[in-house]
Q: What sequence folds into this?
């Protein structure tokens, strides 16, 4: 038998012995094997080469967005009802059905633009991604802390992210690039009014809201579908930071939000959020001045009340950040029976993008890693590929890794609900915007809903950033703000030395459809 007692430590040292990955004991971890004490080294030095070459491969590509983040575990507890009604009138998803039913979850919070070790005090949306390990397989709800997004069509995502990421030459996040893009993308106005307000720097992850942002569907026991939006409300309350607060925190800690969440869970102060949903019938809703599939819009709560359906509690930290956080993989395609996609053009693009990037970032077998694995029975005929960790058993016979077979192997499930009654869709192939873009009304309403100090902070932040932009970009942004809300446009303009007269002659952009109300505001300029 191999003696693994270790030569470097005394017989009194009871700790476990260091080995390499082959299980060989490491007798000397301080010196390479060399010919004589002064070298040279030799190539057959397996222990040294294995140690260094594994180290050389320690990093995987970081996420292209949301690289800085942290993961924790907990549970979701269902209320079993939607307001006064049984919830199965709206969704048959099992995790929502019985009051008190608990489903294990993993939640990853993140910032968007910075790299893996960047500051958590950045003005930036925060990611709020939940993986529900349900009995029907995994459900991922991949959201942000702000209720709307910059764009409404996935084809623009690489552009908006390139504009927000550092300049490829100077590697500085540059307001002149950001507002260059935004000034030509009026649908971003609603998001900008949120992002440059105090909500753009949440105090930490425990004190922020979460939103699914995109429109999904619920499907009930009769196969009838509804449009749905998801909202997470923190029981801890919502707290934000001004730029001055953020600068003070950042001076001594780049990872304050991860630390805050980790420490709260360690001391048993478990953070909690309530999940609320807004529902609409599954149609185009011509009575609204926006399209329900437009993720730059919120649904007015007076018409579509937000009703609670359950609560989320986080009560366990990861044991290893790399294995469980860095290699975790969330995506909008990961749904269970009773939940569905809508035709939201962002959601469709996202659903392709997540698993595509994860096959590249983590590898084709990323779903075999413990954090990503379903806890539901999982039997596939998928085989092989890099880093295959296990082979699903296929019935009694390992020979039958195909379907159909009269001999053995896996069979198809009996589809439980054959009578889907979703909308019938017909139309010409086209590349058109949604019909009701209405880019300004909700941005203006959001401004008016803010408290006085929030408006002051928003104007201050916009002016500070826009001062670093070319005049032509400043003017177009003031033009947009005037169309959203007079007071906002006048105040930002004043900070930049731009009057309504200065921008009165600007033509609408080719990329926008103005409403009659917008045209009315436009005609009053100057
Ligand atoms: C992460 C694409 C819009 C929330 C990511 C990643 C990609 C991506 C490629 C990295 C995933 C990984 O490496 O595992 C897209 C595309 C979008 C889009 C193409 C638009 C078409 C959005 C929107 C939201 C959002 C609107 C908010 C509702 C997130 C979150 C993560 C993420 C929270 C981090 C997930 C995690 O913690 O691992 N996105 N995204 N994304 N995205 Fe998006």
A:
């Amino acid at each position: 038998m191999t003696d693994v007692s270790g030569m470097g430590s005394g017989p009194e040292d009871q700790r476990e012995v260091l080995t390499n990955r082959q299980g060989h004991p490491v007798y000397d971890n301080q010196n390479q094997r060399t010919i004589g004490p002064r070298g040279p080294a030799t190539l057959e030095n397996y222990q040294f080469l294995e140690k260094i070459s594994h180290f050389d491969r320690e990093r995987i590509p970081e996420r292209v967005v949301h690289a800085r983040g942290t993961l924790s575990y907990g549970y979701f507890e269902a209320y079993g009802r939607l307001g006064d009604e049984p919830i199965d009138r709206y969704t048959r998803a099992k995790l929502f059905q019985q009051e008190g039913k608990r489903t294990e979850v993993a939640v990853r919070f993140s910032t968007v633009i910075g790299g893996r070790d960047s500051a958590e005090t950045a003005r930036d949306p925060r990611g709020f991604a939940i993986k529900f390990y349900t009995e029907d397989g995994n459900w991922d709800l991949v959201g942000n802390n702000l209720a709307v997004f910059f764009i409404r069509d996935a084809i623009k995502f690489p552009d908006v992210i390139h504009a927000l990421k550092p300049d490829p030459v100077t590697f500085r996040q540059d307001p002149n690039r950001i507002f260059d893009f935004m000034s030509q993308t009026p649908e971003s106005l609603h998001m900008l009014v949120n992002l440059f307000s105090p909500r753009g720097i949440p105090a930490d992850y425990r004190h922020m809201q979460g939103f699914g942002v995109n429109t999904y569907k619920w499907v009930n026991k009769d196969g009838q579908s509804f449009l749905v939006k998801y909202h997470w409300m923190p029981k801890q309350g919502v707290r934000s930071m001004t730029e001055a607060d953020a600068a003070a925190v950042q001076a001594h800690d780049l990872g304050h939000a991860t630390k805050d969440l980790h420490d709260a869970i360690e001391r048993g102060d478990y953070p909690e959020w309530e999940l609320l949903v807004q529902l609409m019938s599954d149609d185009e809703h011509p009575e609204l001045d926006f399209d329900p599939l437009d993720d730059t819009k919120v649904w007015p709560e007076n018409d579509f009340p937000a009703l609670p359906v359950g609560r989320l509690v986080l009560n366990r930290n990861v044991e290893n950040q790399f294995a469980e956080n860095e290699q975790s993989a969330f995506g909008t395609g990961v749904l269970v029976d009773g939940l569905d996609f809508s035709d939201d053009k962002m959601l469709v693009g996202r659903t392709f993008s997540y698993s595509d990037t994860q096959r590249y970032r983590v590898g084709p077998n990323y779903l075999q890693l413990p954090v990503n694995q379903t806890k539901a029975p999982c039997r596939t005929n998928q085989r092989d590929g890099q880093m295959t960790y296990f082979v699903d058993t296929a019935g009694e016979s390992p020979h039958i890794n195909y379907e159909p077979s009269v001999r053995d192997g896996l069979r198809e499930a009996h589809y439980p609900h054959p009578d889907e009654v979703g909308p019938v869709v017909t139309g010409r192939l086209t590349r058109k915007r949604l019909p009701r873009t209405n880019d300004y009304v909700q941005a203006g309403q959001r401004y008016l809903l803010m408290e006085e100090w929030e408006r002051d902070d928003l104007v201050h932040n916009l002016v500070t950033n826009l001062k670093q932009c070319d005049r032509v970009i400043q003017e177009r942004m003031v033009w947009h703000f005037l169309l959203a809300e007079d007071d906002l446009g006048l105040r930002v303009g004043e900070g930049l030395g731009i009057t309504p007269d200065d921008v009165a002659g600007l033509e609408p952009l080719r990329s926008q459809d103005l409403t009659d109300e917008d045209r009315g505001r436009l005609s009053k300029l100057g």
User: Anything to note?
Assistant: Residues 345-361 form the longest helix (17 residues). Residues 1-6 have pLDDT under 50 and may be disordered. The first strand starts at residue 69 and ends at 78. Residues 63-66, 69, 108, 110, 127, 129, 142-144, 149, 154, 157, 213-214, 328-330, 346, 349-350, 353-354, 357-358, 361 surround protoporphyrin IX containing FE (CB under 6 Å).
